[in-house]
Amino acid sequence: MTTQADDDPFDDCELDPGAILGTHTFENVLFTDETETPVNVLTGETPAHSQATVEEAKTFAASIDTDTPQIALPASVETQVETQSKPYTSAAFFHFKATGSLERHRAYHAAYDSDAFTVDFEADYASGDLTITVDRANES
Questions:
Q1: What gap in Å lies between CA 80 and CA 115, rounded to an integer?
Q2: 36 with 138: CB under 8 angstroms?
């Protein structure tokens, strides 16, 4: 027998919907032109693999084949050096590196997957800010 509680998208979440309803801005979480890159101490130059533009990062994030919209997050300098990777990585717009906690990540994911909520986001790559808005579907 299925109960209404079994249909609750927040059943496995530490946070309830009230924690994410409304508009929340997460500052300086996106890849920007100011994202830190490594510098070769011998030459004073940034390695070629760490040179990238915001447009490249946005294009990369958009190219990921998934149903969940992706954003470009900065990769750590350590990651760039160790793996010779680009200074950005792609992740779901509600990723814990952007929203600041795994609990918030799970709550946004539950809302995004649920028909009971509308979830919109704006990625401002000029400022590095990510704004996520969650409303109950019958209120929007």
A1: 39
A2: no
